[in-house]
Structures are given as structure tokens and as C-alpha cells.
Write a structure and sequence with these properties.
The structure holds three protein chains of three kinds. Chain A is mainly α. Chain A is 69% helix and 2% strand. Chain A has one domain (29-203). Chain A has helices at residues 2-15, 29-33, 38-61, 71-93, 95-101, 112-122, 127-157, 179-203; strands at residues 159-160, 163-164. The relative contact order of chain A is 0.18. Chain B is globular and about 60 Å long. Chain C has helices at residues 2-48, 131-134, 163-188, and strands at residues 61-65, 69-78, 81-92, 97-104, 110-117. Chain C has a five-stranded antiparallel β-sheet with strand order 1-2-3-4-5, sandwiched between helices. Chain C is extended and about 80 Å long. Classes of the chains: A mainly alpha, B mainly alpha, C alpha+beta. The interface between A and B is large, with 41 and 41 residues.
């Protein structure tokens, strides 16, 4: 039972209080760049979950055999291997997604979230917990991405995952799907979460 | 020549790395609180981006292309960039203490800066030759410097203004960046005669 | 020194492992990616050329032009008769480069055009990809049109609020037709 509790704690922290995008504000390039549509958000989220899970598992398994002096090059090597696998598979099986995510797939390599999890969690914890951590962080990242892209897509194009939701009369604010809109929406979302957090603190 | 000028202004202003391509946001948000530091960061990034464009170009054209190992470019580039940054650090530490003081702490951060890997990958994607790659790296770096310096100027003023509590820190920084991105739209259409 | 060699060896083992994994993935995915790229290229070519029954890519030639660099011309033939040639064109729009594929018949008239890649403003300039805008170029030759938008005395409708993008496409088509005229001799004798 204790084990189960620990597992779910590691799983949930990435979604909630240690959410990489909204709480820690790290690895912000993809959430801003590819959040123009919900489908992009889901695709990017899945890619990051796969890479995070893979690198967490391998690094956790091999953590006793990685000398600490050269751990960073090895982490980067493992991460970029998973990223390249993801890149090739998306290009082969989801060409349209590959085109709209563009260089942001290979750039997952330098996404701070993944290296940070490798360094601060997977290299110090057993495999099962690292899996929980990887999935949790990945889902937290994906949910944030889906939230941002849902706001941008609905305001900017009046659609959700390609389906029209705001009706014919809605005049989309194109700026939302362009670069400035990304910054506005992300800023506003983080501010809203900050506000909710503050309100909770006042109450207690 | 015309193409080089176009590449330069396109990457520096019209499709600015930070404001329109969303590359290099970590240092942009992290270091733009202080005006002086932002200039150092800008110079360091410009230097590394330009040099990385050159080094990775040679690796791509003389190693990966002939051996048909294009799929290894991500992993090779990141290793090459990391090694190169380490090397520059060593050289600076030995030769110029003043430079080390100014750039020292920023250089290691640059390894995981997506603008550097991004420019190398874009050079390959656009099929740029050596000179075009250099111009792309240099222009991208200068564009980054411009954005981060403007941003630092704005954030220093922000210190004296009354920002609502939930907006303090990152949210207001994002919103300011959004406005900056909006004003950079003015450069679009710059190239049409 | 000994420790250094040990670390180096460990590093090499890791990178060898990743290289093997990646080559395996690459050999599995490469054929799928290549096949789709070829198919897409052929699709784009057949969209802008009159009907053909050969392989335009195989029968294509590469010509060097001082303004455009190396240009690949894909030649369409039906029953050994030359029906048209397709090639890529580039132009500068509002937000950067616009890439298009042009199909030209032997008499130097445009048969079809498709925008392949662009960076124009979503919702405004991005309408250059719409057939309703592109259709107006079909059948035009280099001398049979005034290459500008209507409001400045040309022959072509523009997309409202996107004059620069519209002009960019007009310029791209004109330059493409000029390129064809210039190299007509070499293309047709191929």
C-alpha cells in the first residue's frame, strides 16, 4: 500500500503542483510554438511522453553504470536517441503532424524538462518510480499544451481539433494563432493559476 | 548577395528567433531581468550560434551527407555543440579573464539553448551553403540580442510599476513579449519591392 | 589516464548502442518516408501538368540558371509527345519565402500552379493557396497578361487585405514563365 501511495504521488505531482509548464515554467518553446491547434498539442504531448518515459526508464535502469563525471553527455545521448526514433516514426506514419511540428520534434532534445527529470529524478530513483515520474510529467506537459492550444485554436479560428464550435457568426481573432497570441495566452493562463493558488492561500 | 541580405533581415527581424520562431526562450526569460547581463548573454549566444552554424555545416556536408547518415544529425549536432561550447569556455578561461567574467556563467547554459541547435537544424532544412549558414547564424543571434536587450529594458522599468500580484514574474514577462512580437510584425512586408 | 580511458570506453559503448538502435529504426522507416515523398512529388506534378503517361521525374533535367540556381524540370509526355513541364518557383511574400510548383505547356502558357510552402499571415495572405485565386493564372503566357494586380493596372484579382502576398505570387509566376522561355530550347529537345 505504501508503495502504491508513493507511485501515485510521483505520478500526480507532475500534473499538479510541479507541472513543468504552468508551475515551473520550463521548456517553454514547444508550448508556445506548436499550440496553434489542439491536434498539434496532442501530437507533441505524446511525443514528449514517449521520450520522457523512454529516457527515464533507460537512465534509471543504468543509473549504477553511468559514471557521474560523464553523466550529462550520456543523458543527452540517450535522450537524443529516443528523440530521433520519435522523429523518424512520426515522419513515416504521421506526415502531416510531422510537417506542422517541424524542427520542434528534434528540439525535444534540448527541452529542459527531459534533462531535468533525468538529472534530478531518474538517475536517483528505481525504475518503477521513474516510470511514474515520466508519465506524470509528460501528462502534465500535455495537459498544459492542450489547454493552451484549445484556447488559441478556439479564439483564433473558432474550432476545436478542427471542428467548428463557435458557430458561423464568430469572427476569429487571428492574432491568437499568430506568435503574439501564444505569449498572451500563456501569460494569461499562468496568471490565472497563480491567482487560484493565492486565493487558496488566503483562505487557509 | 541579395539572398544573403534577405536571409539576414528575415531571421533577425521579420521571423525573429525569439519573437516569431519561439527559439531560445529559456535564456530570454531567465536573463532579461538585468540590462547588462542581457547584453552579455546576447553576445554569447550570437557568437555560439554563428560558430555552431559553421561547425555543424562542415559535419553535415563532409561527414553525414557522404555517409548517408542524415538521421544522426540531431545527436551529432548536440554533441558537437556541447563539445564546442566546452572548448570555447576553456579557451576563454585561459586567454581572457575579462571575457570570462562577462560571459562565463552564460556559456554552459547555451548548450541547452534551443536557438543554437535550432539554427543548425534550420540550415540543413533550408539547404543553405556555408556563407548562407553563417549569415543565418549571425542574423539569428543578433535578432536574439535585440529582443533580449529590449526586453531587459522594459523589465527594468517594470520594477517601478505596480503589477497586479498574480501577474508578477513570468505572466507579465510573457505578455510583454507578446506585445514586442506584435510590434515586430511591423517588419513584415519589409522585403517587397 | 587509466580513468580517462575507462570513461571514454563507457561513452563509446553508449553511443555505439544508440547508433545501432537508430540505424535499425532508420532502415525500417526510410522506405516508407521515401515512398511517400516520391508519391507526393508526383501528385503535385500531376496537379499542375496536362495528362501524361511517362515518369516526369525520371525524364527530368537539371538546368543551372544564374538567377535561380539549379532548377529541376520535370517533363511530362503523352505517347512520346511533350505535353508540359513542371518546376519549382520561389518568391518573397509578406512573411518570407513562398514556394510553388508551376506547370507550363510547350507554348509557354501556364497550365497549373500550386503553392507548396509559405509563411504568410494566417487568414489573410494564406489565401494564396486557394484555387479561386490561383485559377486566374491558368492559360496566361508571359506576353499575354499585364503582371500586376488590377488596382495598379494589371490583369489579376488580388486577395483583399493581402496585396503584397498576391503580388508575390504574380511575380513568382512571371519569373517562372520567363525562366521557361529562356531555357525552352534545352527543355524541349530533351
Amino acid at each position: 500500500m505504501a508503495f502504491f501511495e508513493e507511485f501515485s504521488r510521483e505520478l500526480i505531482k507532475g500534473i499538479g503542483k510541479e507541472n513543468p509548464t504552468i508551475r515551473l515554467v520550463i521548456g517553454m518553446c514547444p508550448p508556445l510554438a506548436i499550440s496553434t491547434s489542439v491536434l498539434n498539442g496532442i501530437g507533441m504531448g505524446l511525443a514528449v511522453i514517449f521520450v520522457l518515459l523512454g529516457s527515464n526508464i533507460i537512465i534509471s535502469l543504468l543509473r549504477r553504470y553511468i559514471p557521474s563525471k560523464i553523466r550529462l553527455p550520456i543523458f543527452i545521448g540517450i535522450i537524443s536517441t529516443f528523440v530521433t526514433i520519435t522523429d523518424l516514426c512520426i515522419e513515416a506514419y504521421f506526415p502531416i503532424l510531422h510537417k506542422s511540428l517541424g524542427i520542434f520534434i528534434p528540439l525535444i532534445v534540448v527541452n529542459c524538462i527531459i534533462l531535468a527529470r533525468a538529472e534530478s529524478f531518474a538517475s536517483k530513483n528505481p525504475v518503477v518510480l521513474s516510470i511514474a515520474d515520466g508519465i506524470g510529467m509528460g501528462i502534465g506537459f500535455s495537459l498544459a499544451l492542450i489547454l493552451i492550444s484549445a484556447v488559441r485554436e478556439s479564439l483564433g479560428q473558432g474550432t476545436f481539433a478542427g471542428y467548428s464550435i463557435l458557430g458561423e457568426k464568430f469572427d476569429p481573432a487571428l492574432v491568437m494563432v499568430m506568435a503574439p497570441g501564444a505569449f498572451f495566452v500563456v501569460g494569461a493562463i499562468i496568471a490565472i493559476f497563480n491567482y487560484m493558488e493565492m486565493k487558496k492561500r488566503w483562505k487557509s | 548577395m541579395e539572398k544573403l541580405i534577405f536571409i539576414f533581415f528575415n531571421v533577425a527581424l521579420i521571423n525573429n528567433f525569439v519573437l516569431s520562431k519561439f527559439l531560445g526562450l529559456c535564456p530570454f526569460l531567465g536573463v532579461s531581468k538585468d540590462f547588462k547581463a542581457s547584453i552579455s548573454m546576447g553576445i554569447a549566444v550570437t557568437f555560439v550560434m554563428t560558430m555552431a552554424s559553421i561547425v555543424t555545416w562542415f559535419f553535415q556536408v563532409y561527414l553525414l551527407d557522404p555517409l548517408k547518415l542524415e538521421f544522426l544529425s540531431t545527436i551529432v549536432f548536440i554533441v558537437v555543440i556541447a563539445t564546442f561550447v566546452q572548448f570555447v569556455e576553456m579557451v576563454i578561461a585561459k586567454t581572457s579573464p575579462a571575457l570570462q567574467e562577462a560571459l562565463g556563467i552564460y556559456l554552459p547554459l547555451i548548450t541547452t539553448n534551443c536557438a543554437v541547435l535550432g539554427v543548425s537544424l534550420l540550415n540543413v532544412k533550408e539547404n543553405y551553403n556555408l556563407v548562407e549558414s553563417i549569415v543565418n547564424g549571425l542574423g539569428g543571434g543578433l535578432g536574439f540580442t535585440l529582443a533580449i536587450v529590449i526586453m531587459a529594458g522594459m523589465r527594468e522599468r517594470l520594477e517601478y510599476s505596480n503589477v497586479p500580484e498574480p501577474l508578477k514574474g513570468f505572466p507579465i514577462a510573457f505578455i510583454l513579449t507578446g506585445m514586442l512580437a506584435l510590434s515586430f510584425f511591423g517588419f513584415q512586408g519589409f522585403f517587397f519591392r | 589516464m587509466r580513468e580517462f580511458l575507462k570513461l571514454l570506453a563507457i561513452l563509446l559503448v553508449f553511443f555505439a548502442g544508440s547508433a545501432i538502435t537508430l540505424s535499425y529504426t532508420y532502415t525500417k522507416t526510410k522506405p516508407i518516408i521515401e515512398e511517400r515523398k516520391q508519391k507526393k512529388k508526383l501528385e503535385a506534378i500531376s496537379e499542375v501538368l496536362p495528362p501524361f503517361d511517362n515518369d516526369p521525374v525520371k525524364e527530368g533535367i537539371v538546368i543551372w540558371d544564374e538567377k535561380h540556381g539549379n532548377v529541376e524540370f520535370y517533363i511530362g509526355k503523352k505517347g512520346k509527345v511533350f505535353t508540359g513541364v513542371a518546376f519549382l518557383g520561389e518568391t518573397t511574400g509578406y512573411g518570407g519565402k513562398v514556394t510553388m510548383i508551376l506547370g507550363v505547356t510547350p507554348d509557354g502558357k501556364l497550365h497549373g500552379i500550386k503553392i507548396i510552402d509559405h509563411n504568410e499571415t494566417i487568414g489573410l495572405g494564406s489565401k494564396i493557396t486557394e484555387p479561386s485565386f490561383l485559377r486566374q493564372f491558368n492559360g496566361r503566357g508571359i506576353d499575354s497578361a499585364k503582371w500586376d494586380v488590377k488596382k495598379t493596372g494589371g490583369d489579376f484579382d488580388e486577395i483583399s487585405s493581402a496585396t503584397i502576398s498576391s503580388r508575390a505570387v504574380i511575380k513568382g509566376v512571371r519569373e517562372g514563365l520567363e525562366l521557361f522561355e529562356k531555357n525552352k530550347g534545352r527543355i524541349l529537345t530533351n
